[in-house]
C-alpha cells in the first residue's frame, strides 16, 4: 500500500480519489496487470528513480530484478539506442524546461540484444514554484507499426524511382473531388510549368489539357474513354497535343476506371507517355519503306525494260541462226560459224535469265508453287538436255534412282528442274574429257530424300570452297574457257531453301565435286506407265492451207517469221507493222491465226486484243502473243487478258510449232489442248528466264 501511495499521488488521479478506497485501487491493479504491451511509469526526479507497472519490460524479456536495475533513471538511459539518444533527451528537456508533453519514438534494447521501437507519451507535474518533480506517462511497443511505416516508405520510394525513371506523367480523376489532378510531368512533356499562366486561364486542368488536343484526335480520345466506361474496353489511345512552342507532340494515354458498388464511375487513374520520337521513327521507317518499294519498282521496270531490249535482237540472232542450221547448202566451215553464233546467243540468253532471277530473289519476289513432284522423272528429263554436251566430252553418265522413282517430294516443279539442270550442267562443264557423272538418290533419313550429283572434274580448291555460293564468284574459272555468270549456284541455293530443302558441297577423294541437296518427302507411289520424258517436235501437222497474220514493227523479226514459215507448206503469212494495220488486216483477210507483238507503236498488243475480241469478225480467231516482255508477271498478264498462248523472244521454234499443232489439231480438241499448252508455256517461260 505504501508503494502505490508513492506511485500514484492524490493529485495525479484528482481530488475525488481516496487511497482508502480499496475497490478503486483494485481496479487500477487489474488494468496494469492486463496491459502486457504497455508500461506505466512515474519518474521521481528528486530521487532519480522510475517506478514501472504493466507488462512492458516483461515483454522485452526482462525479469523483476532487471526492472529494479532499470528503474534507476541513469541506468535507463543506457537502454536507449545510441542513435536515438538525442531524440530522447530533447523530449526530456522539453517537459522539464518548456513544460511541453513528451511525444517521442525511439528504440529500446531488449534482453536478447535486439531493439524494439517504443513510443512515450508523458507529462510533468510541477510544484508551487513551477519545478517539475514528477514525470508520469506510458510507454508502448510500436515496432510493428514502424516496420509497416518503413515498408510503406520503401514502396513509396521505389514507386517514386520508377515514376522518375519512366519519364511518364500521371493523372487521376475521382468522383468525390469531381476533377482531374495532373502530375507536373504531364505538363513538362509539353514544355509547360505546372503553374504556367498559359495553362491556367480560367479553366480547370482537364479542360486546359483537352483544349490543347489536336481537333482530329480529340474525338478519338472521347470515343476511347466512352468505350472504356460503357463497354469496359481497355483505355489506350494515341493522340496529338500542342506543345508550348506551337509544335505537336504524340501522347499515348492509358488508364483504368474503378466503379463503385452501384456500377457508377468512382476513380480513374492513368499515365501519359510521350511517343513523339517513336512516331517520328515510324514515319522514317514508312518513308524508307516507300523509297525502297519505289526503288524496287524502278529496278523491276529497268530489268523488264533491259530484258525486252536484249531479247529483241537475240530473237533475230537465234531465229536466223536456227534457219541457217537447217540450211543444207552450208559447208562445214559455215556450219561451225553458225554453231558459234547459236552458242553465243544462248549464253547471252542464259546471262539475262540469271540476272533476272537473282534480282527477283534479292527483292523477295521469287514465287513458288509447292506440290508433289517426281524427282526421278525430272532428273531423267534434265539428263536429256545435257546428254549432247556430255557426249561431246565423252563423259560416262550413270544414274541410280531406285529410291526417288517411288517417292514424291514437296517442291516447285519448274524451279526444281532449274536446280537439277544447273547442277548437271556444271557437272558437264567443269568435268574433264572421258570423265564420269554419277547421279544418285537415297532416303538419307526419315522423311528426307538426298540427291547427289557427282563429277570427276578438277573440283573446287579448298581455299575457294567458302566462296561457292557467293554471287559473281567463279572460283578461278573466269580464267578458263568455260563460260558462266557466277550466279548459278547462288540462285540454286536460294531456290532449294525456298522449297524447304538444303544444299551443300563436298570434295570427292579423287578430286572431283559432289553437290547434294535434300528435299522433304511427302508422298510415296509408283510411277504410272505413261510417265515418260516428254519430247518436242518441229513437225507441223497437215491441216490444209492456213493464213497467218503477224503484227510486228521490227523488220528483222518480220523477216524471221516469214522465212520460218517458208519451211512449211500451206502457210500463207501476212505482215502488219503496227496494231492499227493489224486490226484492219484481220477484219479484211480473216486469218486462221494472229501472232501479235505487245510493244507496238500507237496501240499496244493488249489494246489490239480487246479490239479484236470485241469484233464479231475476229472474236473467235486464235491470237498468240509473241513478245520480248518475258517476266513471269508479263506471262500471267497475257494469259489473263485472253491470249491463247504467250511466247517469248528469242522464239523457241519447237514451242511455236507445239502451239500451232494444238490450235489446228481439230476444233473439238482445242479447249483441252489450250489448257495443257498454257501450263506448258508457263513452265517453259520460267525455264527460259534462267
Outline the fold blueprint.
Layout: H1 2-7, H2 10-13, H3 22-34, E1 38-44, E2 49-53, H4 56-59, H5 64-70, H6 73-77, H7 85-98, E3 102-109, E4 115-126, E5 132-141, H8 143-166, E6 169-174, E7 179-182, H9 184-188, H10 205-212, H11 215-231, E8 235-242, E9 248-259, E10 265-274, H12 276-325, H13 332-362, E11 371-373, H14 375-392, E12 396-400, E13 407-411, H15 413-429, E14 436-445, E15 448-455, H16 488-498, E16 502-507, E17 513-524, E18 546-551, H17 555-565, E19 571-576, H18 579-589, E20 593-596, H19 605-613, E21 623-627, H20 632-641, E22 645-648, H21 653-664, H22 667-689
Parallel strand pairs: 12-14, 18-19, 18-20, 20-21, 21-22
Antiparallel strand pairs: 1-2, 1-5, 3-4, 4-5, 6-7, 6-10, 8-9, 9-10, 11-13, 13-17, 14-15, 15-17, 16-17
Helix pairs in contact: 12-13, 12-17, 13-16, 14-15, 15-16, 15-22, 18-19, 20-22, 21-22
In short:
With 690 residues, this protein is an alpha+beta fold. The protein is 45% helix and 23% strand. The chain starts with a helix and ends with a helix.
Would you kindly provide a written description of the structure presented here, covering whatever features stand out?
There is one protein chain. This protein has 690 residues and is α+β, with helices and mostly antiparallel strands. 45% of the residues lie in helices and 23% in strands. Strands 11, 12, 13, 14, 15, 16 and 17 form a seven-stranded mixed beta sheet that branches. Strands 2-1-5-4-3 form a five-stranded antiparallel beta sheet, sandwiched between helices. A five-stranded antiparallel beta sheet has the order 7-6-10-9-8, with helices on both faces. Strand 6 and strand 7 (179-182) form a beta hairpin. Helix 15 (413-429) crosses helix 22 (667-689) and helix 18 (579-589) packs parallel to helix 19 (605-613). It is elongated, with a radius of gyration of 49 Å.
Amino acid at each position: 500500500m505504501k508503494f502505490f501511495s508513492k506511485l500514484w499521488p492524490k493529485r495525479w488521479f484528482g481530488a475525488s480519489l481516496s487511497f482508502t478506497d480499496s475497490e478503486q485501487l483494485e481496479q487500477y491493479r487489474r488494468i496494469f496487470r492486463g496491459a502486457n504491451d504497455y508500461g506505466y511509469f512515474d519518474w521521481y526526479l528528486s530521487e532519480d528513480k522510475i517506478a514501472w507497472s504493466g507488462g512492458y519490460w516483461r515483454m522485452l524479456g526482462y525479469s523483476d530484478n532487471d526492472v529494479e536495475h532499470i528503474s534507476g533513471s541513469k541506468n535507463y538511459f543506457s537502454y536507449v539506442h545510441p542513435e536515438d539518444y538525442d531524440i530522447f533527451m530533447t523530449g526530456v528537456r522539453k517537459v522539464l524546461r518548456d513544460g511541453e508533453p513528451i511525444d517521442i519514438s525511439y528504440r529500446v534494447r531488449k534482453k536478447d540484444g535486439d531493439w524494439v521501437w517504443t513510443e512515450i507519451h508523458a507529462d510533468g507535474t510541477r510544484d508551487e514554484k513551477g519545478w517539475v518533480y514528477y514525470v508520469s506517462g506510458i510507454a508502448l511497443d510500436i515496432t510493428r507499426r514502424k516496420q509497416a511505416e518503413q515498408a510503406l516508405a520503401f514502396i513509396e520510394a521505389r514507386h517514386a524511382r520508377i515514376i522518375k525513371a519512366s519519364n511518364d506523367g500521371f493523372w487521376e480523376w475521382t468522383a468525390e473531388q469531381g476533377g482531374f489532378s495532373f502530375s507536373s510531368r504531364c505538363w513538362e512533356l509539353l514544355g509547360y510549368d505546372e503553374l504556367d499562366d498559359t495553362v491556367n486561364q480560367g479553366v480547370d486542368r482537364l479542360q486546359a489539357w483537352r483544349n490543347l488536343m489536336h481537333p482530329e484526335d480529340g474525338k478519338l480520345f472521347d470515343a476511347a474513354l466512352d468505350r472504356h466506361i460503357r463497354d469496359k474496353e481497355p483505355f489506350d489511345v494515341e493522340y496529338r497535343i500542342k506543345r508550348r512552342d506551337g509544335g505537336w507532340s504524340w501522347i499515348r494515354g492509358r488508364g483504368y476506371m474503378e466503379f463503385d458498388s452501384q456500377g457508377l464511375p468512382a476513380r480513374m487513374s492513368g499515365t501519359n507517355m510521350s511517343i513523339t520520337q517513336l512516331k517520328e521513327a515510324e514515319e522514317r521507317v514508312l518513308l524508307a519503306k516507300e523509297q525502297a518499294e519505289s526503288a524496287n519498282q524502278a529496278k523491276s521496270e529497268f530489268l523488264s525494260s533491259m530484258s525486252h531490249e536484249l531479247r529483241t535482237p537475240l530473237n533475230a540472232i537465234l531465229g536466223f541462226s536456227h534457219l541457217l542450221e537447217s540450211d543444207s547448202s552450208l559447208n562445214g566451215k559455215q556450219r561451225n560459224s553458225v554453231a558459234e553464233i547459236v552458242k553465243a546467243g544462248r549464253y547471252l540468253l542464259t546471262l539475262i535469265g540469271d540476272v533476272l532471277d537473282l534480282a527477283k530473289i534479292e527483292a523477295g519476289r521469287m514465287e513458288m508453287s509447292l506440290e508433289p513432284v517426281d524427282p526421278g522423272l525430272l532428273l531423267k528429263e534434265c539428263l536429256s538436255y545435257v546428254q549432247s554436251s556430255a557426249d561431246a566430252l565423252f563423259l560416262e553418265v550413270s544414274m541410280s534412282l531406285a529410291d526417288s522413282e517411288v517417292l514424291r517430294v514437296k517442291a516447285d516443279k519448274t524451279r526444281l528442274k532449274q536446280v537439277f539442270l544447273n547442277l548437271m550442267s556444271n557437272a558437264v562443264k567443269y568435268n574433264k574429257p572421258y570423265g564420269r557423272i554419277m547421279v544418285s538418290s537415297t532416303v538419307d533419313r526419315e522423311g528426307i530424300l538426298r540427291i547427289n550429283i557427282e563429277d570427276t572434274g578438277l573440283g573446287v580448291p579448298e581455299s575457294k570452297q567458302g566462296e561457292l555460293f557467293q554471287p559473281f564468284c567463279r572460283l578461278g574459272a573466269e580464267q578458263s574457257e568455260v563460260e558462266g555468270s557466277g550466279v548459278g549456284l547462288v540462285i540454286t541455293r536460294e531456290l532449294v531453301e525456298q522449297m524447304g530443302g538444303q544444299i551443300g558441297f563436298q570434295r570427292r577423294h579423287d578430286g572431283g565435286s559432289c553437290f547434294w541437296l535434300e528435299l522433304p518427302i511427302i508422298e510415296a507411289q509408283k510411277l504410272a506407265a505413261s510417265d515418260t520424258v516428254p519430247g518436242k517436235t518441229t513437225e507441223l501437222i497437215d491441216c490444209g492451207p492456213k493464213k497467218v497474220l503477224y503484227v510486228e514493227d521490227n523488220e528483222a523479226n518480220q523477216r524471221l517469221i516469214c522465212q520460218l514459215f517458208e519451211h512449211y507448206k500451206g502457210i500463207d503469212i501476212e505482215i502488219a507493222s503496227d496494231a492499227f494495220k493489224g486490226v484492219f488486216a484481220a477484219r479484211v483477210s480473216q486469218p486462221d491465226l494472229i501472232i501479235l507483238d505487245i510493244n507496238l507503236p500507237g496501240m499496244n498488243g493488249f489494246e489490239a486484243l480487246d479490239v479484236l475480241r470485241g469484233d464479231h469478225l475476229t472474236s473467235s480467231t486464235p491470237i498468240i502473243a509473241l513478245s520480248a516482255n518475258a517476266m513471269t508477271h508479263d506471262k500471267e498478264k497475257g494469259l489473263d487478258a485472253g491470249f491463247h498462248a504467250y511466247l517469248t523472244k528469242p522464239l523457241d521454234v519447237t514451242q511455236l510449232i507445239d502451239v500451232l499443232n494444238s490450235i489446228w489439231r481439230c476444233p473439238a480438241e482445242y479447249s483441252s489442248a489450250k489448257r495443257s499448252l498454257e501450263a506448258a508455256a508457263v513452265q517453259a517461260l520460267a525455264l527460259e528466264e534462267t
